[in-house]
């Protein structure tokens, strides 16, 4: 085989690989254009489906399962029953409290009921999109992102749950010189984190509770991996790229003593830019109903940003920078 033959084969292999990557598909449940607050400037937010946690306060319950599913909006429903008739799988049942519930075990996500509903009361959440699809979408708004010093933020769900796809997507954005941020639970393998980190300009890292037993009770998983990954990140980053996000949930992690211990723990990490306290809201409550799920925190009152200002002072005393909310 001549050198030219070898070069030709290598070129073909590399072209095939590039094509393969472009066509790699991820499960996406939302895309928000022109968003602010999740990173600098104006940004495109890409929401990836699938999460290893199930936080009691999750505002995006439709993000948790790694597959598309049907969500039902009871307020739009006029009770015509067209969806029930359209379903060949007998997957829609009437329920006194939820209205029409989709039996996820029977549903094959054919979308017939969504088509049949003339009142926008049913929607398919979650769609496969390729890296090329997402690049094309973001390219359209590129000038807004560039002129504002913005970029893209991957969120979810847990974006690193779809590790291979997310890493290749980040690489693709970096090849186009787009600023990249991620919002992560930190609950992933170190290998995945290591594969992603070089392609990230900013990392929003959730820290939900300092105590492992409480963390397990409220999120369904231990915080050990999250702590280990934070340490690994801190040791391997060259610049301050981490913004810690603490969801402030009354009765769960809201005690001053708990917050104090979290700030003291986080103080050791020198790659943290700041801590953001995210006040509890219940904007996701209707989605639980739409998915036929019970929302345990439905009685919990939303928290006002102005009521948390004392945590900024507490942070100052301890020696960490605390901001309330992301803006
Ligand atoms: S998506 Fe298809 S299978 Fe699922 S509830 Fe609707 S009609 Fe039935
Ligand atoms: S088709 Fe739409 S409006 Fe009619 S019962 Fe089903 S969800 Fe409700």
UniProtKB/TrEMBL annotation:
<protein>
    <submittedName>
        <fullName>Pyruvate formate-lyase activating enzyme</fullName>
        <ecNumber>1.97.1.4</ecNumber>
    </submittedName>
</protein>
<dbReference type="InterPro" id="IPR012839">
    <property type="entry name" value="Organic_radical_activase"/>
</dbReference>
<keyword id="KW-0408">Iron</keyword>
<dbReference type="InterPro" id="IPR058240">
    <property type="entry name" value="rSAM_sf"/>
</dbReference>
<keyword id="KW-0949">S-adenosyl-L-methionine</keyword>
<comment type="similarity">
    <text>Belongs to the organic radical-activating enzymes family.</text>
</comment>
<keyword id="KW-0670">Pyruvate</keyword>
<feature type="domain" description="Radical SAM core">
    <location>
        <begin position="37"/>
        <end position="321"/>
    </location>
</feature>
<feature type="domain" description="4Fe-4S ferredoxin-type">
    <location>
        <begin position="98"/>
        <end position="127"/>
    </location>
</feature>
<dbReference type="InterPro" id="IPR007197">
    <property type="entry name" value="rSAM"/>
</dbReference>
<dbReference type="GO" id="GO:0046872">
    <property type="term" value="F:metal ion binding"/>
</dbReference>
<dbReference type="Pfam" id="PF04055">
    <property type="entry name" value="Radical_SAM"/>
</dbReference>
<dbReference type="GO" id="GO:0043365">
    <property type="term" value="F:[formate-C-acetyltransferase]-activating enzyme activity"/>
</dbReference>
<feature type="domain" description="4Fe-4S ferredoxin-type">
    <location>
        <begin position="68"/>
        <end position="97"/>
    </location>
</feature>
<dbReference type="InterPro" id="IPR017896">
    <property type="entry name" value="4Fe4S_Fe-S-bd"/>
</dbReference>
<keyword id="KW-0456">Lyase</keyword>
<dbReference type="InterPro" id="IPR034457">
    <property type="entry name" value="Organic_radical-activating"/>
</dbReference>
<dbReference type="InterPro" id="IPR001989">
    <property type="entry name" value="Radical_activat_CS"/>
</dbReference>
<dbReference type="Pfam" id="PF00037">
    <property type="entry name" value="Fer4"/>
</dbReference>
<keyword id="KW-0560">Oxidoreductase</keyword>
<keyword id="KW-0479">Metal-binding</keyword>
<dbReference type="GO" id="GO:0051539">
    <property type="term" value="F:4 iron, 4 sulfur cluster binding"/>
</dbReference>
<dbReference type="GO" id="GO:0016829">
    <property type="term" value="F:lyase activity"/>
</dbReference>
<keyword id="KW-0004">4Fe-4S</keyword>
<keyword id="KW-0411">Iron-sulfur</keyword>
<dbReference type="InterPro" id="IPR040074">
    <property type="entry name" value="BssD/PflA/YjjW"/>
</dbReference>
């Amino acid at each position: 085989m001549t050198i030219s033959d070898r070069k030709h084969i290598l070129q073909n292999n590399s072209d095939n690989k590039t094509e393969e990557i472009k066509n790699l598909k991820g499960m996406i449940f939302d895309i928000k254009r022109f968003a602010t607050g999740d990173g600098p400037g104006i940004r495109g937010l890409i929401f990836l489906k699938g999460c290893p946690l199930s936080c009691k306060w999750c505002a995006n319950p439709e993000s948790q399962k790694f597959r598309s599913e049907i969500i039902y909006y009871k307020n739009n429903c006029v009770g015509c029953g067209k969806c029930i008739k359209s379903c060949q799988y007998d997957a829609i049942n009437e329920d006194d409290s939820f209205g029409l519930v989709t039996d996820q075990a029977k549903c094959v996500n054919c979308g017939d009921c969504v088509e049949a509903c003339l009142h926008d009361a049913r929607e398919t959440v979650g769609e496969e999109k390729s890296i090329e699809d997402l690049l094309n979408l973001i390219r359209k708004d590129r000038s807004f992102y560039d002129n504002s010093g913005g970029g893209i933020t991957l969120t979810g769900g847990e974006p690193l749950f779809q590790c291979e796809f997310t890493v290749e997507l980040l690489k693709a954005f970096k090849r186009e010189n787009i600023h990249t941020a991620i919002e992560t639970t930190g609950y992933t393998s170190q290998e995945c984190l290591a594969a992603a980190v070089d392609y990230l300009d900013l990392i929003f890292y959730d820290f939900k509770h300092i105590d492992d037993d409480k963390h397990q009770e409220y999120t369904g998983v231990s915080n050990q991996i999250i702590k280990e990954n934070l340490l690994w990140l801190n040791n391997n980053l060259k610049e301050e790229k981490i913004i810690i996000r603490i969801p402030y949930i009354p009765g769960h992690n809201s005690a001053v003593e708990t917050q104090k211990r979290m700030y003291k723990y986080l103080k050791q990490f020198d790659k943290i830019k700041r801590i953001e306290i995210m006040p509890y809201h219940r904007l996701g409550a209707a989605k639980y109903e739409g998915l036929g799920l019970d929302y345990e925190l439905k009685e919990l009152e939303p928290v006002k940003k102005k009521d948390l200002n004392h945590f900024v002072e507490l942070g100052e005393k301890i020696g960490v920078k605390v901001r309330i909310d992301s803006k």
